[in-house]
From TrEMBL, chain A:
This is Nuclear cap-binding protein subunit 2. The lineage of its organism: Eukaryota, Metazoa, Chordata, Craniata, Vertebrata. InterPro entries: NCBP2, NCBP2_RRM, Nucleotide-bd_a/b_plait_sf, RBD_domain_sf, RRM_dom. CDD domains: RRM_NCBP2. It is found in: Nucleus. Residues 38-116 form the RRM domain. Residues 122-153 are annotated as: Disordered. It holds the Pfam family RRM_1. Gene3D superfamilies: 3.30.70.330. GO terms for biological process: mRNA cis splicing, via spliceosome; mRNA transport; nuclear-transcribed mRNA catabolic process, nonsense-mediated decay; regulation of translation; regulatory ncRNA-mediated gene silencing. Belongs to the RRM NCBP2 family. Coiled coil: none annotated. The gene is ncbp2.
TrEMBL record, chain B:
InterPro entries: ARM-type_fold (IPR016024), CBP80 (IPR027159), MIF4G-like_typ-1 (IPR015172), MIF4G-like_typ-2 (IPR015174), MIF4G-like_typ-3 (IPR003890). Residues 28-240 form the MIF4G domain. The gene is ncbp1. Its main location: cytoplasm. Belongs to the NCBP1 family. SUPFAM superfamilies: ARM repeat (SSF48371). This is Nuclear cap-binding protein subunit 1-like. Residues 1-24, 662-688 are annotated as: Disordered. GO terms for cellular component: cytoplasm; nuclear cap binding complex; nucleus. GO terms for biological process: 7-methylguanosine mRNA capping; mRNA export from nucleus; nuclear-transcribed mRNA catabolic process, nonsense-mediated decay; regulation of mRNA processing; regulation of translation; regulatory ncRNA-mediated gene silencing; RNA splicing.
Length: 153, 792
């Protein structure tokens, strides 16, 4: 019974506008998976942030099942994102509510629902091998390889 | 393409779909919205908003009466922090429409009965409070409210039923008095006096064995940790002495007095408290958390005293705000900071005190620990000029009082503090705490700093910790978390088994099969058993294989998990016995003793992949090998995580069994309905399969439950052995038993009871008959008795 929708607001848990363009399936299927997912995408990590640090932080909202660190497709080194998978949806919701938007390794990290890890998704999709955002970035970020690739060229 | 963040937008929640045809639903949404939002920040005064809303609702009563009733009942139940706003609204409606007022009261009583039946005691409490405030709004006649209170208090005369049942009914009466005490005493002072006397004599005779187990600090100074009913009664007594003056509660109905006193009142129907039943779960007793008093807020408004009724109301309201908005940290912080009447109180101090009160609440905080960390960060963002200072003051205060702080609370304190610091570049005036450097490392203060630094390192890295503390803190800096490889190089070549490690490394690099590896391992001499054919427990074999494997996989958690997965078969064969399981834990510890986090995640993996079982982990923690680390925080993280895994496992299988049973039920009822012979035959087969599955699951559940029971027995037995040994040794040696080690150990025993109380309740009979018998040392038995008292 939906009474008092205004009171039941849980906006930190809502799915965002982002949709994975490489997802095999239609929008509806992707959204369905996002709404029951136990996997989070974590972005804005420093290249030096370790799996251990991610474990420690994300364990605060529940038992972590698996972490997959994001890698530069060419160099196979960390390129500033990862996936965190929980055993239960409830634990991952707590992470969206209380870990998203706080700091890890001195950087504000961002979490978002992910439809589920599949082999290959651990690689950056930018032309140079890292994440797309680091291709076109104009600012200098020492923890993410300095200037964006477009500046370096 | 930009990644627009939904949570960054100002409107929370999903956008409503516009329905073209169903207008009534839009109106209902609008009614909901109007009612929920009244009392929020507005350009008009609260009074004019209430007046306007009362007019709107009155006009909508002919068509939407039931919806309006439902919404109002729900806000009464779920928004207690806005109690007086809504009671005023109901008062205004009652003045305009007497029948509606009567129907509302009836709905409330129905809801009260429902919530009591469903063990929703907090919500029931808010309903009772709302009803009592309706007396102030001339909706309910005072004598009938007094009659309800009389019935509540008569529960204390009942023969059967646990103390916690009487506690709730007494609490329901007492906690309504700040709102309605004055009015009830004015109308029915003789009856109220009798009620208070009955309550007083109940409070005098009720047992309070549970109190020490729930106190955050064991010391009485500077603030006694009072039992919640005692504190509230003292506050009510004080209010009575002040002639029921209460200056804090916002009472919008006062402005409408001329309208409201013209209204006809309703009588509450006689309300008999539902009888006690076996599945009733009453709220646990609490201790009132206090850390500040009027001396702590240096300037500005004065903090109401510990026995002032204002203090109670403020704390109640702040708790209610957190309860309503804990999922939305920005809203929660904003609501806390815009608390009505905030200019007359040192609000930041109250907020910090209430938040820590919840975080340290025993047995468990009302919400997940990490919520409080994030909420405090959010509050710091909104009040950067004042809140961080209060937080620092609180931290300093809690540091100075570590000697008497409950170990479980110290755990939560250090978890919070290290996580908090990691959000603020670990900036802290460590020098202020240099007093801890002169103390023994096992004393609470240096221990606390060590554990904070260790936890902080997990969120950063070793060099960072070295950099953030002054040089003289070096003894408290955690070890560099590197692997200790026993068979490192030529210098270890004399160790037995060394040559085999070389062979194993090569075998792993060359992707040899499990059989090939086991064959290589046959060459490892068995120091336990010279006649060994190669199959019995051989600790050196485990050592050689696991040390080598873990060394090769030391780079990261993922590497180590991969290694465990790849050689799962080999590990299972090597650890087939109980001794094998214990030894693998020893090897992991020896290799990774500088990296407790790694030990923790490896043990977690090994339990989940059934290389070791939970009882083995418990035995290992209590073994002499681990005695030197027994008081370290990571050890208890591992034990509690292990118990939790066991509990979740049992719950999972129980759920599977329930689901299967439900499926069978459904199939049976479907068959009854159809009556088709062909279908019947097929269903018979399906039934058979399902029944088989249920039987198997039933066995699985029984097995899991017995494993769980065994785990708790092992843990309790070991505690009893350790503590008894210590107590006996101290007595015969004529030394004081109350050492830091003892305090830690006995409070860890308490912690097991408190953290897993729901599960442990199932095994009370066994515990009482087998372990916690009368012959036990009374110090240990007291912990058990305190635990039992929590639900008595």
């Amino acid at each position: 019974m939906s009474i008092l929708n205004a009171l039941r607001s849980d906006s930190y848990v809502d799915i965002s506008q982002y949709r994975d363009q490489h997802f095999k399936g239609n929008r509806y299927e992707q959204e369905k998976l996002l709404k029951m997912s136990c996997t989070l995408y974590v972005g804005n990590l420093s290249f030096y942030t370790t799996e251990e640090q991610v474990y420690e932080l994300f364990s605060k909202s529940g038992d972590v099942k698996r972490i997959v660190m994001g890698l530069d497709k060419v160099k196979k080194t960390a390129c500033g994102f990862c996936f965190v998978e929980y055993y239960t949806r409830a634990d991952s919701e707590h992470a969206m509510r209380f870990i998203n938007g706080t700091r890890l390794d001195d950087r504000i990290i961002r979490t978002d629902w992910d439809a589920g890890f599949k082999e290959g998704r651990q690689y950056g999709r930018g032309k140079s091998g890292g994440q797309v955002r680091d291709e076109y970035r104009q600012d200098y970020d020492p923890a993410r390889g300095g200037y964006g690739k477009i500046i370096k060229k | 393409m930009s990644r627009r963040r939904h949570s960054d937008e100002n409107d929370g929640g999903q956008p409503h779909k516009r329905r073209r045809t169903s207008e009534p639903i839009e109106i209902e949404d609008r009614l909901e919205s109007l009612i929920c939002r009244v009392g929020e920040k507005s350009t008009s005064s609260l009074e004019s908003n209430l007046e306007g809303l009362a007019g709107v609702l009155e006009a909508d009563l002919p068509n939407y009466k039931n919806k309006i009733l439902r919404i109002l009942c729900t806000v009464a139940r779920l928004l207690p922090e806005k109690l007086t706003v809504y009671s005023t609204l109901v008062g205004l409606l009652n003045a305009r429409n007497y029948n509606f007022g009567g129907e509302f009261v009836e709905s409330m009583i129905r809801q009260l009965k429902e919530t009591l039946k469903l063990n929703l005691y907090n919500e029931a409490l808010y309903l009772v409070r709302f009803l009592s405030d309706l007396v102030n709004c001339h909706v309910i006649a005072a004598p009938s409210m007094v009659a309800m209170f009389e019935n509540f208090v008569s529960v204390v005369q009942e023969e059967d039923g646990p103390q916690v049942r009487c506690d709730w009914y007494v609490y329901a009466v007492l906690s309504s008095l700040p709102w309605v005490g004055k009015e009830l005493y004015e109308k029915k002072d003789v009856e109220m006096e009798r009620i208070l006397n009955q309550i007083e004599s109940y409070l005098k005779r009720r047992q309070k064995i549970h109190v020490p187990m729930l106190q955050v600090w064991t010391a009485e100074k500077p603030h006694p940790q009072e039992e919640y009913l005692d504190c509230l009664f003292a506050q009510v007594q004080k209010m009575k002495k002040d002639r029921w003056q209460e200056r804090h509660i916002l009472r919008p109905y006062i402005a409408f007095d001329s309208v409201l006193c013209e209204a006809l009142q309703h009588n509450l129907p006689p309300f008999t408290p539902p009888p006690h039943s076996e599945d009733a779960v009453y709220p646990m007793p609490k201790v009132v958390f206090r850390m500040f008093d009027y001396t702590d807020a240096p300037e500005g408004p004065v903090m109401p005293g510990s026995h002032s009724v204002e203090r109670f109301v403020i704390e109640e309201n702040l708790h209610c705000i957190i309860k309503s908005h804990w999922k939305e940290r920005k809203t929660c912080a904003a609501q806390l900071l815009s608390y009505p009447g905030k200019n007359k109180i040192p609000l930041n101090y109250h907020i910090v005190e209430v938040i820590f009160g919840e975080l340290f609440q025993l047995p468990q905080p009302p919400h997940i620990d990490v919520m409080y960390t994030t909420l405090l960060i959010e509050l710091c963002k909104l009040q950067p000029g004042s809140l961080p200072q209060v937080l620092a003051q609180a931290t300093e205060m809690m540091y100075t009082r570590l000697d008497t702080m409950n170990t479980t609370c110290i755990d939560r304190f250090l978890n919070w503090f290290s996580h908090h610091l990691s959000n603020f570049q670990f900036r802290w005036s460590w020098d202020d705490w240099s007093d801890c450097l002169t103390q023994d490392l096992d004393k609470p203060k240096p221990k606390f700093v060590r554990e904070v630094l260790e936890k902080s390192m997990r969120l950063s890295y070793h060099q960072r910790i070295v950099d953030i503390v002054p040089a003289n803190f070096s003894a408290l800096i955690p070890a560099n978390p590197i692997f200790i490889y026993k068979y490192m190089d030529e210098s270890s070549s004399s160790l037995p088994g060394y040559p085999v490690t070389i062979a194993i490394s090569n075998a792993i690099i060359n992707r040899s099969s499990n059989d090939e590896i086991l064959t290589i391992l046959k060459d490892v001499p068995n120091q336990e058993d010279d006649d060994d054919e190669g199959d019995s427990f051989n600790p050196l074999k485990i050592d050689v294989f696991l040390q080598t494997l873990l060394h090769m996989a030391a780079k990261s958690f993922s590497h180590s998990f991969s290694a465990l997965a790849k050689f799962h078969e080999v590990l299972k064969i090597l650890t087939d016995s109980d001794e094998g399981k214990l030894h693998i834990l020893r090897v992991v510890y020896e290799a990774w003793r500088n990296h407790p986090q790694m030990i923790s995640v490896l043990i977690d993996k090994m339990i989940r992949t059934q290389i070791v079982d939970c009882a083995a982990v418990a035995n290992w923690i209590f073994s002499p090998d681990m005695a030197h680390d027994f008081t370290r925080f990571y050890v208890w993280e591992i034990l509690h995580s292990t118990v939790r895994k066991m509990n979740k496992h049992v719950q999972k299988i129980q759920k599977e069994l329930e689901t299967a049973k439900e499926k069978l039920e459904k199939q049976h009822s479907k068959r009854k309905d159809s009556g088709d012979e062909e279908e019947d035959k097929n269903s018979d087969e399906e039934d058979g399969l399902l029944e088989e599955q249920i039987e198997r699951l039933q066995e699985k559940v029984e097995f899991a439950q017995s494993e769980q029971k065994n785990l708790f027995l092992v843990i309790f037995q070991r505690f009893i052995m350790m503590l008894t040994e210590h107590l006996v040794r101290c007595e015969t040696g004529g030394v004081d038993f109350n050492t830091p080690w003892y305090k830690n150990c006995i409070e860890r025993l308490q912690q097991i009871f408190l953290m897993h109380h729901q599960t442990i309740q199932q095994y009370m009979v066994t515990l009482e008959n087998l372990l916690f018998t009368a012959e036990l040392d009374h110090h240990i038995l007291t912990v058990y008795r305190q635990f039992c008292a929590l639900q008595m």
